[in-house]
Amino acid sequence: MNMNSPDNWDRKWLTMKEPMEKDVWVKIRMKTVSSLVPFLSTVLDVGCGTGYIEEWLHSSVDYTGLDYSKEALRHVKGRTIYGDVRTIMLPENSFNTVLAMEIVEHVDNPGDLIKRIALWARNQVIITVPNNRMGPEKNAFHLAQYTKESIVELIKISFPFKNINVFTPGGNITCQCLK
After folding, report:
1. Distance between CA atoms of residues 30 and 99, nearest Å
2. For residues 50 and 102, what is the distance between their CA atoms, to the nearest angstrom?
3. Three-class SS string for 133-171?
4. CATH superfamily of 45-173
5. How do the domains of the chain map onto residue ranges?
């Protein structure tokens, strides 16, 4: 059963016992991702949850969070868009950077998701996934798990990026996909 419905995510955000900022893996991921986002850029954070990355970004970044959990969006400080990343229509090349942090493992068609969000990015897409841990047997919200090789292969067959830089800090895989 796919747990990734708006109602289930609303319940998850409402009942989360430990704030994300206490998780060391989250801190490492945020530090890595924020270092890849240039000053004076526009950022779309798909599946943004509570928008925690916004606190890590430069103050000059124009941040927008996109999520289908109304409960999560209540916590985002910046601009928000309520909607499903798999169906919402946004103009091509409308953001310098599109972030997809810990979302690819939650969708039925991850290649379609990558292709879709790549069209919204002017310069880069940054994708993070857990590094071959917390698959469906450990986390009911995860539909897949990835290694560095398998996520890079998925990205390559989904969209013709010019370059993909891969970082593996603190148990996660971060892919900087340059257009």
Report:
1. 11
2. 13
3. CCCCCCCCCCCCCECHHHHHHHHHHHCCCCEEEEECCCC
4. Vaccinia Virus protein VP39 (3.40.50.150)
5. 45-173
At 33 the three-state DSSP class reads helix
Q: How far apart are CA 45 and CA 59, in angstroms?
A: 16
Residue type, 160: P
Write the DSSP symbol of residue 53.
G
Cβ-contact 151, 132 below 8 angstroms: no
Question: Which long-range contacts link 91-94 to residues 24+ away (Cβ below 8 Å)?
Answer: 91/120, 92/119, 92/120, 93/119, 93/120, 93/121, 93/122, 94/42, 94/44, 94/120, 94/122
Query: Rounded to an integer, what is the distance from CA 29 to the centroid of its chain?
Result: 11
CA separation for the pair 124, 178 (Å, rounded): 5
Would you give per-residue pLDDT tens digits along the chain (179 residues)? 556 566 555 556 556 544 455 566 677 888 899 999 999 999 999 999 888 899 899 888 999 999 988 988 988 988 999 999 989 999 999 999 999 998 898 788 999 999 999 999 999 999 999 876 554 455 566 668 888 999 999 999 999 999 999 998 777 899 999 99
Residue 164: which residues within 8 A CB-CB, separation 6 or more?
152, 155, 156, 175, 176, 177, 178
